[in-house]
Amino acid sequence: MNRPLIGSLSAALFGAAALTGMAATPAAAADHGNAPHGKPAAAPSFEGTVALSNCSGSVVKMPNSKPADPALVLSNGHCLEEGMPEPGKVITDKASNRAFTLLKADGGRAGTVRADKIAYATMTDTDVSLYQVGATYQEIESRFGVKALDVETAHPEQGNDITVVSGYWKEKYGCAIDGFAYQLKEDGWTMKDSIRYTADCKTKGGTSGSPVIDNASGKVVGVNNTRNENGEECTLNNPCEVDKNGKTTVHEGIGYGQQTYIIAPCVGEGNKLDLNREGCTLPKP
Length: 285
Prior knowledge:
The strands form two sheets. This protein has a six-stranded antiparallel beta barrel. Strands 9-10-11-16-13-12 form a six-stranded antiparallel β-barrel. The protein has three helices and 16 strands. It folds into two domains: 28-45 and 152-259, Thrombin, subunit H; 49-149, Thrombin, subunit H. A hairpin with a 2-residue loop joins strand 10 and strand 11 (189-197). The chain is mainly beta. The two termini are 23 Å apart. The chain has helices spanning 8-14, 16-22, 137-144, and strands at 49-51, 56-61, 70-75, 90-95, 99-103, 109-122, 128-136, 149-150, 161-166, 171-186, 189-197, 211-214, 220-227, 240-242, 248-249, 255-259.
């Protein structure tokens, strides 16, 4: 995983590696060039992104979201304040008072919002957490001047230019979608249809939970979560790919994100999570 940098269980699991992440020198964002179909590549700002105590995230809107709905914050399942969910575990509607630092477009601090609950979190088939906060989109925009990011409802396309925007580091990582991993295995966890980045996105600890933004549309197509750090096969911090035939491959230095279009069908009116809605394929408790 792109390890969390603070937190009791996560720190214990990652040990000295987490301290190395804290000491890392901030890297400049890479410019990847033009978006598909000849359109100029957008330069996503930091607006809508957030910093967690140990990770990154973003305030996101679903297709049914209204201005008066309680806002949602997207991050990784492995960024939870209580530590990483075990394989097969799904968390829903769990009380939380977690704080999120909202960022302005230029990366400056806009203010703080707090969660009411963890609406959904898992590390099974994907690596995602979705918090509901105690403020509406309208209140956040009015008070802080920050607009939420829209979640794309369609599967992302190979070759599209993307930007991983880290609220924790206030850094951007630009690259393209290199392809998709049928299965991505890391330690005991398995993720499906993961986004594989080209080599320019050299993500690191603290970038976990960052929105993966399609440069052309400006919409969130994924949530950044891991990178093969030293070429090991299927170990913690060294995910491996497994294809439909069971063949395993390792891409040292390559990062991955989890697709977010699968979340949209599971959120209904009032931003309420409903895992039984038509088209919802997220794992259930």
